[in-house]
Amino acid sequence: MRVLVLAKESERSEQPTPPTAEAMAAYQKFNAELVKSGVVLAAGRLHPSAQGKRVRFEGKTRTVLDGPFTETKEFVGGYWLWQVRSMDEALEWLKRAPFDGGTFEVREVAEHEGM
Hints:
single chain, 115 residues, alpha+beta, Alpha-Beta Plaits, four-stranded antiparallel sheet, two-stranded antiparallel ribbon, 23% helix, 37% strand
């Protein structure tokens, strides 16, 4: 099964401070373990919402909105796409992550024929 792991961030993290060298080394080690095990299919960090766009659909009307999205309390700051055997396996991997704060959402990717 494939799961998407979303790193949730608050408004305060829209202007993130760089991680310490130790924190970055721990993250890189953890990520290397994920890659070596074949779990990681894709990963990335997202720019702040100030650089993003939204498209609102209302009937036939399409409206493009520029960031930042100040009405939002949580932002997606990054993601992993993992290939795992089960949700339990995904959660076990995530619980090993060397983060000292934050919220992560794990969602199964819906598999549809032809997609």
